[in-house]
Amino acid sequence: MSVRVTMTLNGKEVSAEVEDRTLLVSMLREKLGMTGTHVGCDTSQCGACVVHVDGRSVKSCTVLAAQCDGASVTTIEGLAKGNTLHPMQEAFRDNHGLQCGFCTPGMVMSALDLVARNPDPSEHEIREWLEGNLCRCTGYHNIVKSIKAGAQAMRGGK
Amino acid sequence: MEITGEFAIPAPRERVWEALNDPEVLRQCIPGCESIEREADNVFNAAMRAKIGPVKARFTSVVTLTNLDPPNGYTIVGEGKGGPAGFGKGSADVTLEPQGDETTLRYRAELQVGGKLAQIGSRLVAGAARKIADDFFGKFQEVVGGETPPSA
Amino acid sequence: MADTGIGAAVRRTEDLRFLTGKGRYTDDINRPGQLYAYILRSSVPHATIRSIDTAAAVAAPGVVAVYTGADMAGAGVNGLPCGWQVHSKDGEPMKEPAHPPLAVGKVRHVGDPVAVVIAESYAQAREAADAIALDLEELPAVADTRAASASGAPQLFDEVPGNLCYDWEIGDKAVNDAAFAKAAHVAKLDLVNNRLVPNAMEPRCYIGDYDPTRGEYTLYTSTQNPHVIRLLMGAFVLGIPENKLRVVGPDVGGGFGSKIYHYAEEAIVTWSAGQLGRAVKWTAERSESFMSDAHGRDHVTHVELALDADGVFLAMRVSTLANMGAYLSTFAPCVPTYLYATLLAGCYRTPTVYCNVKAVFTNTVPVDAYRGAGRPEATYLIERIVDVAADETGIDPAELRRRNFIPKDAFPYQTPVALVYDIGDYDQTLDAALAAIDYQGFEARRAEAAKRGRYRGIGISTYIEACGIAPSNVVGSLGARAGLYEAAQVRVHPTGSVSVYTGSHSHGQGHETTFAQLVSDTFGIPFESVEIVHGDTDKVLFGMGTYGSRSLAVGGTAIVKAMNKVIEKARKAAAHILEASEADVEFADGQFRVKGTDRAMSFGEVALAAYVPHKYPLDELEPGLDETAFYDPKNFTFPAGCHVAEVEIDPDTGVVTLVNFAAADDVGRVINPMIVEGQVHGGVAQGVGQALLESCVYDAQGQLVTGSYMDYCMPRADNLPPVSVSTHVTLCPHNDLGVKGCGEVGAIGSPPAVMNAVVDALSALGVKHVEMPATPQRVWQAIRDAKGAAAA
Question: CB-based contact (8 Å) between A41 and chain C?
Answer without folding.
Answer: yes
